[in-house]
Amino acid sequence: MKILVYVLVIIHLVSCNKDSFTEELLLKPLYANKLYSHFQFTTKWDVDATSDSMFHTNLFPRAISEIVVRHNIQELHISLTAGLWRYETWGYPVVDAAPGAEVWAWFNPDTENVDKNWKELANSLSGLLCASLNFIDSTNSINPEISLRNSGVVQGQVNNTFLRYSSLPREIVCTENLTPWKKLLPCSSKAGIASLLNAGYIHNTQYHSVGIMFRPICADKACTRKAVELQQTVSLVYDYKMLGNRQWTLRRLFGQGIMNACPLAKESSIYVDLSNDDKFDLEPYPHEYITAYRGGYETTYAKYDIKRIKPMSIAASYEGKEIINVNIPPPLYASQYKTGFGQQNGGIITKLYNNHWADLNVVVLQNFPWYVPIYLHTMKIESNGNILQPTVLKYKPGKLREKAHYLEIGLRLPPKSTISISIDFDYVFLKWQEYPPDANHGFYIGSAIISAMLPLAKNYTGIPQDGSTIADSFNASRSGYLVQIRTETMIITLPTPDFSMPYNVICLACTVVALAFGPLHNITTKRLILKVTTKKKLSEKLKSFFKK
Amino acid sequence: MGLLTDPSAGQGKLIKLLLKYYAKLCVLLYTVGIVYFCALASSQINSSTYFSENALLPGLVRSEFMDNTMAMNYFDELKHEMKKYDDSIPYPWLLAKFRQLGLDTYTHNFSLNYPLGASQKFTGKNVYAIIRAPRAASTEALVLSVPYRPPVSVHAPTASSIAIMLAFAKFAVKEKYWAKDIIFLVTEHEQLGMQAWLEAYHGVTCGKKDVLISGDMKGRAGSIQAAINLEIHEPEIGQIDIKIEGLNGQLPNLDLFNLSGKMALKEGLSLTFKNRLAKRLKSLWRDWIYAFQTMMSMVVTQATGVPNGNHGLFYRFGIQAVTLEGFSLPNPKSNRAGFYTIARILEGTFRSLNNLLERFHQSFFFYLLSATDRYISIGLYIPAICLLAATFMIKAYAKWCQLHNNNKTDEKQAGGDAKNQLSDDVVKELEMKHAALTQGDWEQKFEVESEKPPNDKHVGLGHVSLVYVLSHVVGFALRDLPKYMSHVGATYGYSTETSIYGTFAAVSLLGVLFPLCIRRKPAYKSMSFLNIIALLEVGTALICLAMYNISIAMFLAAIYAPATLLINPTRCGSCRIVQRVLWLMMHPFVVFNVCIAVFTFTAFPNDSLEEVFYRALGASRQAMVYSIVDSEIYGNWLYNMITMIFVSTWLCFYYVTFGKADPSEQIIKKKSD
Predict the structure, then answer these.
(1) Which of B110, B210, B266, B279 has the greatest number of CB atoms lying within 10 Å of its CB?
(2) Structural domain tally of chain A?
(3) 0.90 exceeded by the pTM?
(4) Closest-CA residue to A393 (of A422, A371, A365)
(5) Residues A213-246: pLDDT tens digits?
(6) Using the beta-carbon criterion (under 8 Å), do B137 and A496 form an inter-chain contact?
(7) What ipTM was estimated for this complex?
């Protein structure tokens, strides 16, 4: 019996060692009085993602592993975002996310019916995250050929028929999405860095984005075995103006200081980016200063090891007067807007700004809903007055009520240039049941995705593909730095009928029915009897009248 | 259509009645229409305004703006700064202020190639800044705009508006409830800057190509839902006036007007419309007079189709906008509202607009106002214009029936005369022969008859269409010729005003003289037909106009309906001359000059008659240039519409007066009398 117990303990220990959890928080002051705070929770698990052993979870959330196994998923990316990441002033975030909800998934190559799995996956996620992801189906999904490559390890040929992408720009992200998200963490929000995620505080930000990424990774350096990795992220951008002043502390940002580390975490640290021009002092003194060189740029971080501390709050105190610097925009950013007025025809313009001194290769992915029929022949790509030819052009026309329009353009952006891609579209009439309850609010067009491998890591915070924690991004110089810029979502007003008209008709019809009911009721319920009347002469009538 | 094509229709009892009384009926309709329209101002008929859009939740929040001193500081700084820039916008100061507040700040350059006269180029610069809403991804926006007026500007200053705007921006940037971006826009060159900014924002050109070059802009904030334009002239004001009339007579949604009005009242500021307070007078008659004056001043502004503020340019883009204009009253004690109050009005308005889930669609877009709190909806005023337009239609129909009746009587008379000449026997013989004729023979005979060339008795379609087309060609020429002549005139050293006014007058005169040169007098029937076509065109045009701009339609209908009723081809020479002289008075060019003269006279009642005459002449010359420039830059269609429809139809009617009367008509008239 004793031996059995030992064996079980050993087995348990072994299985425990197979997974690890890291929690990290990055605080980075941005241009224009903003503070970026990025929470990164990474769970790695040395397990075969397709087998039943996925169900025997320890640190890994069981809900995710069930979804992964059930829908035969290779890789999954979810983001729920409120607000827009302003690339021009804020640089690049750790994780790019489009406003609203965005989901993309790679299915395993042995999946029989990808569309069915995709639909079911969306429904499961909708339940998991309390978001309206159940609106995702084949009518608003696309499978891009170039833009959204696997970020995890892949065996064999990549086939984009197993990829699905969809975004719901209308989705409003709030507390009800954050609460179920927190439950996926090993310590939930009871301990560790996650305890800072108080809904009341984090929704008072300029931008907040909740993300989940699941992917297969290599278990060892030689990549003989596969493991799985789950990254859970929260990105917040605070505005000093909204906080009152720029002397921020953890308590002011999140409502409380940090109590302890998550006991299940292998590592638990807070990094503060100190490389801003506007210097500030940190209180308490950080445990370590890290200088990271990446892509030709040097960054200094202050590191706090939460495992080593007592309850505390980090406070930044700026000295001297506020300086307003000139903004130096990042090498590549983009924006998207609608042109024209009225409800006959309009245009969509995507503008790309290349501030780099050399050519940049980018891929622009655009996903137009079926109610925005675009005309490919009207597409014009201009750069400072010159017409630019796309290097690659992938286009799948949409179909009314069935399929979204998908457009992917490969471009070589000339150095120091502004490139505008314009395309015309028509406004269509919808069927009356296709209008949402607040039809006059307008209809959304999702953001475009501009993917590029930047040669420089200026203003870049992303985690390299081979890494999974913020610490992995230090000193991680690579040949290119992947950014996937999301543009603004747009709102268009489709020709909308007067929806009060059915109400008026109902009122009118009810009145008519009510009026008709009385006489009909009379006729059908009362008996008609013939009565003999004698004709009186006028004089007699008068007489009878006066007699009264 | 059956009525129009069925030849027997003219015989109906109703038609006979119509033919007998149509003139009286038209007079009746006209009178009723005018009286009804005037009566609409009465509070007995119109109704009080209300909020239709519940999402606005106006005035539900407590205003939080407190920073009066900051606004005062901005005002003093700006006053100082303005001295450095005589004729342009102090954009470095504005940019710096907005940037200090942490807003995304941009400039927008535009240029104007002046479309008339010698080619001139003007440039301008707008400054704008955007508060990015924390609750949305820049999909929707609100605009707060101020026209910047340099010290040399002829208009009342707006420096206080900019101070309020900055103070409000400073307040708003701290708030976390914004769900729509707020664009703070300072425009240069009055409406030109605003038009250029709007065109650049929407990537379109509204007027002629290459006239207003609106350029490109960098920062955008999604679709604009509403805009407030500020024209606060003094740091202390006594009352606030809401201006709504837009380009081509478009109006903002009534909910927005109510909203800004309610906010002003909530802060205890007196609110006016057309500089007139809402008054309740005990006497019904006086109350009506007061309301009628307010309504008519709106009608006059709307009829010109020229926006009376920068708000008026937003409507084309589906953006609801109003201008809040603040005046100081002559009595300094009554000027009690300062920056604090106005910024609080703005706060309330923007927070309400921020609540909007859907774009403005609930309340009225077509209305007239008789006070700040009374409105006349389209349902009420449309019958008035319909009654007036009906006079044209009824007269046209009566004329058409008359034409048919005459045809009938012609045939009858012809038959009767023949019968009289022949003895009964012959007639019988003839009838026998006719009976003997086969069907085919009849048809043959008929064809031969109808192939005969049209004589006086028939409608000369060729003649009519020639006149009709020619008069419209003159209309088109009047639309475009003055522009070209201004270029030609410039090379000979004439001013733009002179060449345009001269060209217009000359072309009009040519049109007037042309029919006099024609020897062959046009036939009665042809002229009657031309009259019908012209009547129908004017009637239709008026109804269409009324859909968009009731004021101009009412004005034109009120002027033209009585005059056109009198235009008939007659035999009596003196009548013809009277008609012609009367109709000459109705020429759009004459009407235009008379209107301007009347305005000048009322504006400068103390001047001598000669002075007023020269003043009026100068004003008309300028007004004509402005209306052409407006159509080139802003796409105002008042000038185009007047030249292409009203000048053309005027010519048609004028030609009608040259028609000879038909003898048969005289007979019928005598009979009916």
Answers:
(1) B110
(2) 1
(3) no
(4) A365
(5) 999 998 888 888 889 999 999 999 999 888 888 8
(6) no
(7) 0.88
